[in-house]
Structures are given as structure tokens and as C-alpha cells.
Design a protein that fits this description.
The complex is a heterodimer.
Chain A: H1 5-25, H2 29-54, H3 57-81
Chain B: H1 2-27, H2 31-58, H3 62-92, H4 105-113
Helix pairs in contact in B: 1-2, 2-3
Chain lengths: 88, 114
């Protein structure tokens, strides 16, 4: 199992890196929010994997909390963006 | 042992989906199409990976399995809801669509109602 750990961590890091391009460049605000939301989901998966790897139960609670807080943040920004014109 | 092998295979499937979704997030032309790639990333990538790690860790530790499955369930419920909310806001604030878009029934309904 430990043999695959670097490959798994590299896979998570690569997907986060590629998605962060859209987070930085994304022409409109919803682009950034969508990229951030997807990245938060992958970060939750990464936290669950780290919790398994280090056998640290606390990281699992942090993953749960990250999922919930990311959802609340997305809804808040959606409410904020609704009804205003977004420049390209 | 079998559970760990299945979990490892599922984990690599999830990583593949996460990377394909991230690539789509970069390559697709507008917000509404990019949200498809974002959903591939959170559903195919994150949920499958979390479930795979739950299988791998749950073989020896049942509470880990339950907690990880709960996390996967939360992502399953919240990710489409947040995606829907943000795209509805984007549609309402008239984010420019890709020029190849030929069907927008929500806009047609809004114009019909006045």
C-alpha cells in the first residue's frame, strides 16, 4: 500500500494544480466559484486519504467540516452574485 | 486484502476522473459547460476516492468506514446543490454563453413571462 502513496498524492496534487488555473484566470466570477467548489471536493478526498494514511481520526472531522463549509460558502456567493451583471 | 485491492483500483479510477475533470475545467468554453467538468471532478473524482479510501481503511476500522461514507454522502448532496445555485445566479446575471449554444429554455420562459 505504501508503494502507491506517492503516485496517489501526485494524482491529487496534479488535479488541484490544473483546476487552480481556472480559479486564477477564470474570466467571470462564477467560473472561479465553480473551480473553487470542485477543488474543495477534491481537497476533502485528499484529507480523507491523509487521515487513512497517517491513521489520524481528527483529519476525518476536518474533512467533514471542510465539505460543509465549502457548501455554505458556495451558496453565499451564489446569493451575492444573483441579479447583478457580471463583466466578462 | 480483497477490499484493499478493490479500494486501490477505485482510488485510481477516482484520481483519473479528478484529473479529467480538471482538464475539462481548463478547456471548456463557458461557465455552463465547465460546470459539467466540475461535476465530474466532485462526483467521479472526490466521491469515488472517498468511498475507495473508506473501503481501504474500513477493513480494520469500522468507525473510519462510517465516517468516510458520511463525508461522501455530504459531498453527494451538497455538490449538485451548490452547482445549481451558482449556475442559476450566473444565468440570472447574464453571463455570456458560448456562441455555439442553440437552446436556452430558461431564457425563453423568462421572455415569455415578461
Amino acid at each position: 500500500m505504501d508503494f502507491f502513496t506517492p503516485a496517489i498524492l501526485f494524482g491529487f496534487a496534479l488535479s488541484l494544480l490544473i483546476a487552480s488555473y481556472r480559479l486564477v484566470r477564470g474570466p467571470t466570477a462564477p467560473d472561479r466559484v465553480i473551480a473553487g467548489d470542485a477543488m474543495a471536493s477534491v481537497a476533502v478526498a485528499l484529507l480523507v486519504f491523509l487521515s487513512f494514511h497517517y491513521e489520524e481520526a481528527m483529519l476525518l472531522d476536518i474533512a467533514l467540516l471542510t465539505a460543509l463549509l465549502g457548501f455554505i460558502g458556495t451558496l453565499t456567493i451564489a446569493k451575492y452574485l444573483e441579479g447583478r451583471e457580471v463583466a466578462d | 486484502m480483497v477490499l484493499e485491492a478493490v479500494g486501490l483500483a477505485l482510488l485510481f479510477l477516482g484520481l483519473f476522473c479528478a484529473n479529467v475533470g480538471a482538464l475539462g475545467l481548463v478547456r471548456f468554453p463557458d461557465v455552463f459547460i465547465r460546470s459539467h467538468a466540475a461535476t465530474v471532478m466532485s462526483m467521479g473524482g472526490a466521491v469515488v476516492s472517498i468511498f475507495a479510501v473508506a473501503l481501504m481503511g474500513g477493513a480494520h476500522n469500522p468507525s473510519f468506514f462510517v465516517k468516510a461514507c458520511l463525508t461522501a454522502l455530504i459531498v453527494i448532496f451538497t455538490s449538485p446543490t451548490g452547482s445549481h445555485a451558482i449556475l442559476r445566479a450566473a444565468h440570472k446575471s447574464r453571463v455570456k454563453m458560448w456562441e455555439g449554444t442553440f437552446c436556452d429554455m430558461l431564457r425563453e420562459d423568462e421572455e415569455k413571462d415578461g
